[in-house]
Amino acid sequence: MTLKKETTGEWYVTFGLEVEDTTLPEKPAVDDVDAEDCVGLDLGIQNYIYTSDGNSVDWLDRSDEYERLRREQRNLSRKEHGSNNWEKQRRGVAKSKRRIKRRVEDFQHKLTTWLVTTYDAVFVEDL
């Protein structure tokens, strides 16, 4: 069991359990995978990723969240360090960072879910 206090002031408890999971499917052999159901991913500069079948995924637009974070940090810099108002504003900055982090994680989770449900095999370039 692990207790963790976030910078926003929230507490989380994490439990670690070891279980035998027999419901996972076996990893298929390379010869059994159909080439038409495979996709290769290439990380891009203009777009987030390009797929070998011609699809591309745009970057996540986070400009509004970063503008809000800049505003929160600017307000924090104007507070007296260690005061109650400084502490409240520090939590506001932490919440803005958490919001950005969670939005990115949600975007990546939805993207990977789409990839594994659409294709049988996904290959990523070696950077």
Automatic annotation (TrEMBL):
Chain spans, region Disordered: 71-99
Check the record and name the InterPro entries matching this protein: Transposase
Per its UniProt entry, which superkingdom is the organism in?
Answer: Archaea
The segment(s) forming the Probable transposase IS891/IS1136/IS1341 domain are: 32-127
Task: Quote the biased-composition stretches of kind Basic and acidic residues, using this chain's numbering.
Answer: 71-90
Name of protein? Probable transposase
> What species does this protein belong to?
Halorubrum ezzemoulense (Halorubrum chaoviator)
